[in-house]
Every structure is written in structure tokens, then in C-alpha cells.
Write the C-alpha cells for this entry.
Amino acid sequence: MVSEAGDVQSFLSEHPPFNHLSDNQLEYASANIYVAFSKSGSELKLESTAPESPPVGMVIVRSGSLEVRDDEGVLIDRLSSGDYLVPSVLNSNADKVPRVHVLEDCLYYELADSAFQSLSASSKEIAALSETDKSRLAHSEYTDDDWSYKAEDAREGICLGQCVKDTMSKVIIFASPETTIREAAQLMKQHHISSLLIKDDQRLVGIVTDRDFRIRVLAEGVADSDAIATVMTPDPMCIELDSLVQEAQLKMMAEGIRHLPVVDDQRPVGMISQTDVLRANNIEPISLIHSIKRVKDVTALSKVAAEIPDLVVKLVARDTRAIEVGKIITTLSDAITKRLLTLAAEQFGSPPCDYTWLAFGSQARQELALGSDQDNGLLFPDGIRDEDRVYFRDFAIFVNNGLALCGMPHCPGGIMAKTDKWRMTLQEWKNCFTHWIEEPAPKAVMHSSIFFDMRPVSGNTELVEELQEYVLRKAKTNTIFMAMMCDNALLHSPPLGFFKTFVLETDGDHNHELGLKKRGTIPIVDIARNYALSAGLSQVNTIDRLHAIQQVSSMSREMAYSLIDAHEFIAAIRLEAQGKQHSAGLKASNYLDPKELSPLVRHQLKDAFNVVREAQTAMKARFGGGVI
Amino acid sequence: MLYKLQYQIQHWRYHKKAVGAPVQPLYEQPLIKASQAFASTRFLVLDCEMSGLDVKKSQLLSLGWVMIEHGRIVNASARHQLIHADRGAGDSSRIHGLLDSSLAGATSLASVLMLLIKHIQGVVLVFHHASLDIRFLQKAAIENFRCPLLFSYIDTMHIEKRRVHLQGKTMGLRLSQCRERYGLTSSPQHNALADAQATAELLLAQASYLGKGRELKLSDLSLRCAK
């Protein structure tokens, strides 16, 4: 017999995710491939038709094309040569099993489920497939595997000093198993602790918490003279002293617990809580904020601000979720803004009246990325004197220029406090919004959408609350305005072609690149804003908005969570790309050459864009649109 | 009916000669019924490479095959058997890319045939342009075992010819031409195994089109018996 890589094997070796496999794994995969053909117009049965034939773990298109639609006929995906689908993922939602139609005569490979499973165990690229597609986007929780990779990566990474040892609180109060329930409760009261470790002969044997007293003692009517051992959680989950904080974090998240005993070779030595973890994760931002608060002039401030990109690179490398990174950058930008406001007051004298510094757009949504433009304005109480307005002009110019020096470029559209028309009293702002909402012109809508995300950075917050309430009340009831906002949101479509190929920018500096912000993030932000406005929700952050929207049920839970995950995924890719650009000494941009992505990430990114496309279609159906 | 008659004649003529020969199991298996469903039939798709087209002067150089079960090509069943040749590959090597050097160390014709016999019991064979391949196979079987092989087969070229004819058209019937009509691209590689795989894919495509919602039977594919 002649040994040669067959046609199937060489095809697989050229396509993701199989191109990541070793020769042995590839050989194994191709030995478990079954080739099938379906003519155009027929339906592909994913559950195996013959009981004696093995279940299918994965379908890979060799030639022709397939179309996946949900039970209502809405297009979920189109597949062509080299694309694949994972039936278990597709069928994960039992009452809504999507159908797979054959668009063009299709020759496809079925990978036996048993082989798919064992490849999943040995290849993380294959394992990731069970989470890509819809399910990955439908459930934001990570699986244990996901976390363990991260912990591994982190171990060799920059995360030194992130040990449980340095973060936990030491525990010196213990009880023994014979201690009575009453004594244990007294011990906890005495030392102001909400959980108590039980040790026997230096070994950790159990834990009780406040909750246990309620549920296992009071509710059950257990006598307080019984031994604590009868109501404790025996052999609790714990973590080793020299583990990484992230391991503790994922253990707690996986188990849904808030405290984790720390043991040193079975000897209990401390306790780590979710709060400890959060603190450990944010050491650098906090120290940066301290430096920001200490600087005496704009030059010094800009030096501190120059450290932010390095911090972002570190955060990304540490697998901090993109939404957290966005919040951290925003917190720092807020701190810089506040510092500039104080410095301005020092230079021009105290402000003559109350004011609110408003952030618009991404800063308002707490979703800043590196190099985001500044969008801001000033809000005064009604009845401000003309001479006071003059004061705020110089004041605003100082702050805007300061922000620009600190890495937040001037807004090209002039939406900044230093522009005269964006310094207004409450009544003037109300009039302005009324005009946008009641007489919406397409162009006005486009320019004004940014104002509908607003948040006070400093000053009087009551004024903003009043303004926000007013705007929401107005917007909610105006269907023409909502339809126009919807049309505006549809201007930016996800960059997917007919067959899930990326559509790249064709003009300007970013020719042949992918506009991650314009085509990924902005559409999601727009969708969230529109639903939030129409439901009168006051949240400003996109994720918060989506959570709230889903609760008032104006959007399906599944869609909301898919969007949240898509948003996170696109933001993460954008941040990572920005981090790389920064490390390479380039200016941070929102564009990316898809060739720089691994084929697997490319595939997942397409999934994310696909979710955006679906959500846009749903939005269009909801708000009508088509007014223009 | 004709198929059954062909089979009975062939069986009657050779079954005594087959006793004790390696081909004997083929003569002992029950006839595969023409009413058997396509989906529950096991197929072995076979392609032979020869040193020329003339049975008298040329010889088999290699066999390639792959199995179809439950309407699926079983990739793990693919085999490519090179045959040790007495004479060099001659002119045909230019087409098939089989050089004399790679033929050296190949298996003898008899053992390749015996392996094939093991794989085709209870199985329907599939060829594209069956008559030429079968002539070479039977000649080899008679030379080595004094008795021809007994098997049922279908011919994708014949299936395609009938399909094209029904549509009132005349079109090319070469393997790559047939495949093109089902959107199947052809690899530039030509050897017995690649062609057997290409033929297997073609059969699945043809079956998919002939099925039209009802259960496809072997009789729909003009089942025949090898002579």
C-alpha cells in the first residue's frame, strides 16, 4: 500500500481549524471523515438518519453551499467551501432547531462525533468550536477549560505578584468540629466575620457562613447546642496558597461562591474573597489615578496620561475583559478631566456658578478605547449671567486643550465644551433635544445620536438627571424620531459579504482593512441606544443597556446576550490590535487587516458580525425605518 | 431480471472451477438483490490503472478503492495498491505518473487480487467506464486463479449516459466532465485512488439526484453482473 496524504486530508490541512492540528491529529481526523453529497434544494439532516451510522460531530463543506435558517426562516448563516458547522451547537436549543438547506449541490465531510470529541480534548482550536457559532455568543459564561488556558498563560505572563498569598486575608479564628453552633455564632459576632473555618487537627474540614445559620440552623429548627460539624459545609472547595489570583477567581465564578478558603498543604491559612480579587486586578489603575490626582500642571498630567497605553497592553495581555478595560480607561479619563477642571479653577479662579461637565459618546458610555476623540459639553443652571459665560469659555478651552495633550484628540465635529454652542443652560439643552426629537432631519439625527449618550463627569449631577429624564420622555413617544434613529443605525452594516467573507474598507488610509469600530462596535451601540431610548431606560453603558432592555423584554434574552458577547468579542479584538499597534510604536487606530487574525479568530469574528446583522434586521422590523 | 439471469449463468459456468480457488467465497455468497436499497448497500468503488488499453498486451499497474456505507464515503477505507509488474510501466507512466522505480517493491498481482476479494464479499462494485477495468480484472483473475471473479457492479458512466440521454442531450462522459455537472471540481492528481474517490463522489451526487424523495434502489442504477 502506498502511504500518501489523501485528498480529504490535504483539504483539511488547508482550512481552519484543522490547519492548527499536528500531522498525527490530521491523519486521525481524516480517517474519521465520511463524505456525503446533497443536491441543491434539499435539506441536510444533521441527526444521523441511519441508526447504525455514527453521530456527526462536525460538517465541513467541500464544495457547493449551505444555508442555515432558524425555525422561523430567518437566515442564521451561509456556508461555502471550507466553512463548517457543529450540529451539537446548532441543535443546542431544543425547541428551536435550525434547518440546513442546500443552496448549491454540496459535497460535504462529516467528522464522526467520537473523533470530534477526542480531537476537542487534544486541540483547543477544535474545543473552541463547541463555543463558537451561536452558543458561544448566546452564553457569556466561560467554561472551565477557557479559564484554565488563561490561568496557564497568566502563569508565565506578566502576572507576577498576583498570587493568592499576597491578596488573601489571613485567618486566625477557627472553630473545631465539636464547637457548638451557639459558640460558633458568638465567635463570628466577636470578630465581625461572616464565615468561619472549621479545622480538626490542623486540617480544614468545613466552613460555615451567615447563610448556613439561616438556612441550615434556623429554618430547620436545629438546636444551638448541636456541634457545628452537623451544619457546616464539609470539605469545602479551597485553593492552594501559591495559586494565582485568577485561579481563585475562576473557581469562585465556576462555583458561584464569594469566599474561598486558602490552604497550605491542607492547613487552612486564609480566605480570599471576590472583593480581594477585584482589588488585585486593579492595582495599576488605582496607582495611576493617585498620580493623576497629585500632579500640579498639565505637562505633568500628560506624562502620567502617556502611561495609559502601556497599562492597556498589560490589561489585555492579562485577559481582562474588554468591557472592564473600557471602564478602566474611562475612569482614568474621568480622573484626568476632573484634574484639569481643578487646574482650570486654579488658573482662572473659582467658577462663578454651578456647572456640570458632561461627557458624551463613548466616554459617557464608559467604553473609551485608546485614542478616542473627546466629546463633551457644559451644562449650567438656568439664569446664568453673561459675564459668567465668558469665564467658562476660557475655562473650557483650557480643559479641552489639556485633554488633547493627554491623548484624547479634539473632536473633529467640534462637539466639545470649548465650542460656544455646546455650553448651555438646562433649558437651552432641553430646547436643543426637543428640536432633534420633534423635527428630526436625517443629518441632524446622525449628528445628534452622540448626545443621547451623556454622563456627568464633574459638578452638579441633578441638572443632568433632569435633562436625561426630559430627553427620555420625549424620545420614547416619538415614533418618527425612533424610526429615523433606526435608519441612522442601519447606515453602518457589519462587514460581511454574501458568503460570510469580510467586506473591507475601500477608501482612504485604511484601504483593505476592517473597520472594527465603525462596523462592529457602533452598530451594537446604536442598537442598544435605540432600544433603550424607546423603552425610556436611563442606562448609558451599552452592556447595562442591553441587560436592561432584555429585562423589560423589548428584545429577546438570547439576542441581548448574543449582542453583549459580540460586543465584548469585537471590543477585545480591537483592544488587542490597538495594544499591538502601540507596542509597535504606531498610532492606535480602529482598523485591522484581517490577515493578521488567526483563521479561528476570523471565523469567530464573522460569527460576531453575523449576530450584529441579525440584530439590525430585528431592529428594522421593530422600529419600521424606511422614513428617509 | 436480466441481471439475475447473467448472475446465474456466470455462477453455473464457473462455480465448480472456483472450488478451492481464492475466488471461492465470491461464488458462495448470496446474490445481491436489485430491489435492495441504495442506502443500505455497501459499495466498493474501484479504479484500475493499466499500462495500456489493449488487454492482450497491457497489464494492471495499480488498484485504488474506497468504500461507501450508509450513503457515505468512508475515508478510512481508501486503499491504493501498486502492483509489481514484470514489464516496465511503458508509455502509460506519462499519464499516471507511476514510474518504474515506484512500482518496484509493490505487491504481486495475486496478493492484490486476494485482498480485493476479501473486501468485495456482499458488496456492490462501482466503476466509471466499467467494461475496460473488468476486462483487465477478469483476465488477471483467470491467469492467477484459473477462474474469473463473480460480483455485481454499477457503472457511473452508464448512469450518467442514461441521465443525459433522458434529457435529450449529448454531453461528455469523461469522469471530470460528469463531475462538473454536479459542481464537483476535479483534482489535477490522477491515480487509481484519486479516480476511485472521484468516482465515489460522482455516484453520491447521481444517487442524490435520482432519489427524488423516494427510496433509491439498486435497480435504479442498472445493476449488472460481471462477466
Chain A has 26 helices and 20 strands. The two ends of chain A are 69 Å apart (CA to CA). The mean pLDDT of chain A is 80.
